[in-house]
Design goal:
alpha/beta; 8-stranded mixed beta sheet; about 30% helix; about 350 residues
Length: about 350
């Protein structure tokens, strides 16, 4: 089964891939006045709107670091509309001519670089706030793994605060987009926020822990003080309660116990794993099941304990915070600023936090 990372339809909503991205006039005006591009201005606006919601120094510094994100030029990619696979120009050139001729060329701009298909990278601020609440306070020199990273933005932000971040994801969209040497390696400190040694970004495009090559890269980047997973490890994706489209499901490629043991092995003693999932409202019984709407942990308490973890929080309700976050970044509005979504009825969040004993 293809491992597909399908984000719940409750994050910032980029237009369809291939469609032109048009900033609203006020944002364009602000971008011109600040010297930022529209994409970076949107991130700056979101960071300012989210700042009053967070308490920890880690979360505040993460948001402030958006001012140091670099400009990124548009990139060409190619897509197979039948298989939904993406290719870089070099990858496409290596394909048989008959297949190459069927690929559609797409220009992915700076907005796509930071928001990809999954919405704002700043939504990670809540997972980081939870990590800080339970002991992970300083990213300087820390090693952080994100399983199903979905976007480079939050990895760069953490790296600009001195962290060594590793993002794991099998999505060909990401490997085709983040193909330049500058996407990985050392990241300069965020000016005015952090003055220590540079952090770094490493991207692993494969099916860890099933894939041997991916496992080697992940192990090389550890051991980790923090493992994150947002909108990937959902019960609905891994263990749907009703029949669901296979393209909307996730197959880890290994048994649950193997996966959890792998997480335990790469964590430092005392290290945390934070699973944070957003979800829309589930469909009624007479309509197709929405895997993304079941935000519960796909693993039971007993499975975590068997793998050697201490459970800090399990399927905790975070609906109130995520709705305030959604209002702050405009998840209730369309691109015209019109309110089109009742977040109180349509947006939910749950989290699970476990730790490797010291």
């Amino acid at each position: 089964m293809l491992f597909v990372l399908l984000l719940a339809a409750c994050a910032s909503r980029p237009p369809p891939i291939g469609a032109p991205v048009t900033a609203v006039p006020t944002q364009t005006q602000r971008a011109a006045e600040s010297g930022r591009t529209p994409a970076l201005q949107q991130l700056a606006n979101e960071a300012a709107a989210l700042m009053p919601l967070v308490i920890s120094d880690l979360a505040k510094r993460f948001l402030r670091a958006t001012d140091a994100l670099p400009l990124v030029a548009a990139r060409s990619t190619l897509r197979d509309d039948n298989t939904r696979e993406f290719f870089s120009p070099a990858e496409a050139a290596a394909l048989p001519a008959a297949r190459r001729e069927k690929l559609a060329k797409l220009e992915l701009d700076e907005y796509r670089y930071y928001f990809t298909k999954y919405g704002t990278p700043l939504a990670y601020v809540r997972a980081l706030e939870l990590a800080a609440t339970h002991g992970f306070n300083d990213p300087k020199g820390a090693h952080i793994l994100d399983f199903g990273y979905g976007s480079i933005g939050h990895l760069r932000l953490l790296a600009s605060l001195g962290a060594h971040t590793v993002g794991v994801d099998p999505d060909s969209y990401l490997s085709a987009l983040y193909r330049e040497p500058s996407d990985q390696g050392a990241v300069a400190p965020a000016r005015g926020v952090y003055r220590g040694a540079p952090g770094s970004v490493t991207l692993v495009h494969g099916r860890w822990p099933k894939d041997g090559a991916s496992t080697e890269k992940v192990m090389r980047g550890g051991p980790y003080q923090l493992v994150l997973s947002k909108n990937t490890l959902k019960r609905g994706y891994l263990k749907p309660e009703r029949r669901a489209n296979k393209n909307q499901l996730i197959d880890l490629g290994v048994p649950d116990d193997t996966f959890l043991t792998s997480i335990h092995q790469i964590l430092k003693p005392g290290g945390l794993m934070v699973i944070y999932n957003l979800a829309p409202r589930q469909s009624t019984a007479d309509k197709p099941f929405l895997p993304q709407a079941d935000a519960r942990s796909p693993f039971t308490r007993e499975q975590f304990v068997k793998a050697g973890f201490n459970i800090i929080a399990f399927d905790a309700n975070d609906h109130d915070f995520v709705r305030r976050m959604g209002l702050a970044v405009g998840w209730d509005k369309n691109d015209k600023g019109e309110v089109v979504n009742d977040l109180a009825a349509n947006l939910f969040a749950m989290f699970t936090i476990v730790a490797r004993p010291p």
